[in-house]
Amino acid sequence: MTDGSTMKAEDISMEGVELRLGAHDFRFDCALPQGKIIAIAGPSGSGKSTFLNLLAGFEQPDRGRILLAGQDVSRLHPAERPVSLVFQDNNLFAHLDLFTNVGLGISPSLRLSKEDRQKVSEALARVGLAGFEKRKPGTLSGGERQRAAFARALVRDKPILLLDEPFAALDPGLRSGMVELLKTLHRETGNTVLIVSHDPAEVRRLADHAVFIDGGTIKLTAPIETFLQGGAIPALTTFLQH
Amino acid sequence: MIILTAPERRRAISGGAFSLGSIALFVGIAVLVLLSAGIESGGDTSLTDPYLLRILRFTLLQAVLSTLLSIVLAIPVARALARQPRFPGRLWLIRMMAVPMGLPVLIGALGLLGIWGRQGLINQALSALGLSQPVSIYGLAGILLAHVFFNMPLACRLMLVGLERVPAEYWLVAGGLGMRPISVFRFIEWPILRGLIPGIAGLIFMLCATSFTLVLILGGGPAATTLEVAIYQALRFDFDPGRAVMLSLLQIVVTLLVLGVMTLFRAPDDHGLTAGRALRRIDGQGMAARCVDAALLAAATLFLGMPLAAVVVTGLEANLFRLVSQPIFLQAAVTSLAIALAAGLLAVLTSFAIIRARSVISADRRKSLGLHGLALALGASSSLILLVPPIVLATGWFLALRPLGDPSRFAAVLIIVINALMALPFVIRVIEPAYTVHVSRTGRLAASLGLDGIARLRMVDWPGLRKPLFTALSFAMALSLGDLGAVALFGSDSLMTLPWLVYSKLGSYRTNDADGYALILGLVCLLLTIAGTAGQGAPDDESRRND
């Protein structure tokens, strides 16, 4: 496993990545800056999730290469890639308590040293869930469950964090708090964050950089200021108006 | 979608392939032996033999009539249940309709005899009224009655599920338009039922065409015998393997044709849980409609409930204490439970391997032609037992093992495998949806954390799948416990199971003992089913809230 703090010079890139899923063709080429929060935006069905699945390793490209933190990961299993993941829901095993759920991020067989246990508790405290070690996910609110998922991403300590609409299932009131938490954690760890979002307000508040995907390809990769001007792409203008 | 690591994928696929291969081998050997025996003795009994044709005709005739009656009677009952959501005891009637499906056929047959039999309630009442012409439950009429008893509730439940899926607004619109009940039926209910009936009818026809136990007990003599029972008689009484072979081959041809037609109409799923939902229907509240529905539902309750009550009443009349303390009962109980447990475990393990392999292959986007074929074959594997019914399988193996000595020496193993195969379709139907949900919920997460092998089994898969696995195991065990078919061919004094004990008591006119044992067997099966479904209604609340 690569150590996040030594990988400063690297970024995320896709070189001629092609993929066919059923009747849908995808083609991605991009190079994304390191250490930024990057929003992946686009209409539903455009290929945002496929883009993320390619990075996470749930899909492998038919052609082309995927580089994460300087490493060719095109053929690697999800567990071997230098990424942490937070999904929209089902981020926690419902029958395991929070300590175990977060601890699995350090060791999948739950062999934890004393320092590891300390790290789990610190991470929980860091996301505002101090003392929640023995709680089961079912007793938490939706926001608290997503916080626990962030705690696990913290202990995993990977250079890249992939988020698939992590706030989509939360109430609007909760979302802004979670956005702030994510920004704070990002500032502290300095990792690269990729967040799929269909909420222009969220993109505006959170991202330094944005990617717009439509029809299975990347239409625009730009710093957030340029992105928010719409870049003469009709689909993006529509997206931003929502 | 890539979820498993490459070695895990290989293990899952080879596990599925091994299960499939074993099933195919077991069924294939039986069929090959039958075919070669059929070719050898080709001269003795030809397929145009009048005896064979008569049996074939009766098999098809009773299946067609049973299907028609079950469907036609189920329509008004399902409709009454659907439009009277506040009928007192409605939920209990719906629950009772599930009982014939889970009840060992043998026990249901005894209950029917208690009501419609020569000494049954109906005939006693008729003779008390001075009518001398008793109703006979034997022969075609009895077989039809029994098939309707078992299959009408099944049809009814499936139709009810369909009717309850109608959007609530439809009923409001119908009310707003002032539709009369006949129009509601014509424009809303019938179009839905019409879509369901082909699938339901195919399912019931298949069940009736391969019906063994009911026909064995209620069919009398050559005039009312189906292929399955004729096979049994040919082997067990006449010891005419040649005829048994021809009958078996004929049976395979029939089931092959029926299955072929059935694939065109898929049977709807019975999602038992929806049947309890209260519906807001504003039609059917007129006085006339309510009276007609009440009468219908009362009649259905009596028709289904009386034989079930008869099992309990006549069973309690027997000296249960004496029956239970008999050594033969203890022997039969131990044998039955051991066979059921082994068959249940085998069915669950095989199903799990099949389901896992199918799930892995379907997640593979770039599957080779070979894997594609394997997935299709895995999907069809549970239907093999429908194509080659238990009696036919048993006949094939009976002939295959004869050169090695007395086939009843291998009886226990054969019964276990055959029972496991019989349970396979049900077990897969219980486990597969749970497995799919489990994988969709935990698959990506476990993969991203690198959880695999024993760690995932212990921490993710076992806690998540324990309940459906136990449910499937108890269903499979109940099925095996109540099965008379496979035992009938091999059963002997050295291999006595509970159904065989009931049947032999019935055969030796010790009806009282048979009733007592039937009650005990029924209770064991009921307990197993309850144990299996306990907690199924609330599959861990946490995971549900976590959605």
Could you give the topology of this structure?
The complex is a heterodimer of chains A (242) and B (547).
Chain A: E1 12-21, E2 24-32, E3 37-41, H1 48-56, E4 63-68, E5 71-72, E6 83-86, H2 98-103, H3 114-126, H4 142-156, E7 160-164, H5 172-189, E8 192-196, H6 200-206, E9 209-214, E10 217-223, H7 224-228, H8 234-241
Parallel strand pairs in A: 3-8, 3-9, 6-7, 7-8
Antiparallel strand pairs in A: 1-2, 1-4, 4-5, 9-10
Chain B: H1 6-40, H2 50-83, H3 90-102, H4 105-116, H5 121-128, H6 140-164, H7 168-176, H8 181-209, H9 213-218, H10 227-236, H11 241-262, H12 287-317, H13 320-325, H14 327-363, H15 369-381, H16 384-387, H17 390-401, H18 411-449, H19 453-481, H20 485-490, H21 498-507, H22 511-533, H23 541-545
Explain the overall architecture.
Chain A has 242 residues and is of the alpha/beta class. Chain A has helices at residues 48-56, 98-103, 114-126, 142-156, 172-189, 200-206, 224-228, 234-241; strands at 12-21, 24-32, 37-41, 63-68, 71-72, 83-86, 160-164, 192-196, 209-214, 217-223. Chain A has a domain at 85-157. In chain A, the strands form 2 sheets. Chain A has a 6-stranded mixed beta sheet, sandwiched between helices. Chain A has a 4-stranded antiparallel beta sheet with strand order 2-1-4-5, covered by helices on one side. The longest helix of chain A is centred in the last third of the chain and has 18 residues, at 172-189. The termini of chain A are far apart. Chain B folds into 2 domains: 1-40 and 318-547, Orthogonal Bundle (MetI-like fold), CATH 1.10.3720; 61-311, MetI-like (MetI-like fold). Chain B is built from 23 helices and no strands. Chain B has helices spanning 6-40, 50-83, 90-102, 105-116, 121-128, 140-164, 168-176, 181-209, 213-218, 227-236, 241-262, 287-317, 320-325, 327-363, 369-381, 384-387, 390-401, 411-449, 453-481, 485-490, 498-507, 511-533, 541-545. At the A-B interface, strand 6 of A face helix 18, helix 19 and helix 23 of B.
